[in-house]
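Run log, item B.
One chain of 92 residues. Sequence copied directly from the ordering sheet:
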Amino acid sequence: MKTITFSIDLKSFCLGALTLGGVLVLANFTPASQRQPEPDVIDTRRFQAVSSERESIILDTKTGRFVISPSYIGKPRWIQGDFESIQQGEKR
């Protein structure tokens, strides 16, 4: 009975390693349309919310607009405001 021996030369090994590397690179490729934005582009702290027993306030720190929800008996309502309009009203 003949024994089976495996032998590989250096050229075949390099070609196999290069092919495997190319397959792994292509498998991890993501198109530009599906990439995550850079961390400095994401503005995660744009909106801030403050709540108490009597009211809730949501503030847009980029534009200065805010929404207040006062607590009272009846249907809930949201009152919109803007810091620019309040500041102009105080200057008059």
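Observations after the first pass:
- Residues 10-27 form the longest helix (18 residues).
- The beta strands are 47-51, 55-60, 65-70, 79-82.
Flagged for discussion on Thursday.
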